[in-house]
Amino acid sequence: MDSQIYGALNLIMFFLAAINVNSLPQHVLPKSTSTQISSNSVLVALLDSHYTELSELVEKALLLQTLEQAVTQHNITIFAPSNEALERQMDPEFKRFLLEPRNLKSLQNLLMYHMIPARVGSNDWPREGTDSAHHNTLCVDESESDNRLMLSKGNSGEKIVGGVARVVRPDDVIRPDGLIHGIERLLVPQSVQEDFNRRRNLGSISAVLPEGAPVVDPRTHRLKNSKSLKKPVTPGSPPALPVYDAMAPGPSLAPAPAPGPGGARHHFDGESQVKDFIHTLLHYGGYNELADILVNLTSLATEMGKLVSEGYVLTVLAPNDEAMAKLTTDQLSDPGAPEQIMYYHIIPEYQTEESMYNSVRRFGKVQYDTLRLPHKVAAEEADGSVKFGQGEETAYLFDPDIYTDGRISVQGIDGVLFPVGSLEGKVVAPATAPKVVTKQRRGKLMEIGCTITGAFGQSC
């Protein structure tokens, strides 16, 4: 009896425990969605292989999880470009385009275009002479050309991928879930190429036509105008630059920056014209010293030729040999002195004896600009001729129109001219300071003391 009661109690306790267990809340563990990748996977081998540039791009494209899922479903074949192809042979602008965050989809399509969801070894390649094989790629783009990758063989038996890339390391990495072939160059799908061209041409992002900042011409000190540059220059028109800007930067430093006979303007042959007028001086006689200074002592002949080639006109007041012989050694020994003297005798205008004489007859006194800024040479009528200079340093027009060709005019004078106030033509004796005799002055206290003693009838 007791045993039956004890058994009934155990049965009741068992049912109560079962009821309590069923009444407790059940905690359901979530299923793991992560895929487990074997250490012997082709994806792990890619990350640890010598294709470091490709593996780095795969990580930047956020494709690791996508490739892990693909490896768990089927074998994959990866055509891996060499590091040299991705680092040195790739266009820097194209690489910059791929690494921009907004172009992540283009980078993903580019990398997935190198992967086939099937196992294609070197033995599975189409034979030589047969039709090429087309395989689907992992590219997510909807374009049919980007989803198909062609495998073929060349005439010499080499394996070719996509019709352009040669396989240089077949079956380089072999794993149970896939393999890797090394190719010589990068494969670019058509959709990625179109995105790059569209971005490069600013077709999708440009709203305003970009224009450069205004550029100031350092020679003319004016804004450069593209329309004025395209406008053809009329032959024989005066140059846009002042003659002072076209001159050499300093005496005997360099020829003038203006182009020579072979320049862009092709209007005048200044070098030949300068040679012609120097030969005329030598044949005329009496101007050998001036010709020697222009050719040998300075580079003024070359500079004048370049100025005339650019379209400038010059009038040379040429001192004769007698006038040049009066120059002292001190006047020519200073650096740049011969150039400065000659600059003062060159007028950036075309003047003949008739035009200058008519000017001084009409206006009385005329100031002509010279190449020696800011000095000007004065001209006036004297004794039926033209006299240049002021004060003691004057010269008369002695041999008119020695050489006139429409660009260069040479007028002979009988003296060397110097600017007004210049010390080049004068020898100034050093001035002696006058002696100053200072008057000795007694002290103020002594003067007051003598005044007081003088009041008492005593002298100091």
Automatic annotation (TrEMBL):
Q: Which PROSITE patterns match?
A: FAS1
Q: Where in the cell is it found?
A: Secreted
According to its UniProt record, what is one Pfam family this protein matches? Fasciclin
Indicate yes or no for the key word Iron-sulfur.
no
* Record-annotated FAS1 domain positions: 38-187, 274-417
Q: Which residues form the signal peptide?
A: 1-23
Going by the UniProt record, its keywords in alphabetical order are: Glycoprotein, Proteoglycan, Repeat, Secreted, Signal
Q: Which GO terms describe its cellular component?
A: extracellular region
According to its UniProt entry, what is the function of this protein?
May be a cell surface adhesion protein.
Protein family membership: Belongs to the fasciclin-like AGP family.
Spell out the protein name for this chain: FAS1 domain-containing protein
Organism from which the protein derives: Deinandra increscens subsp. villosa
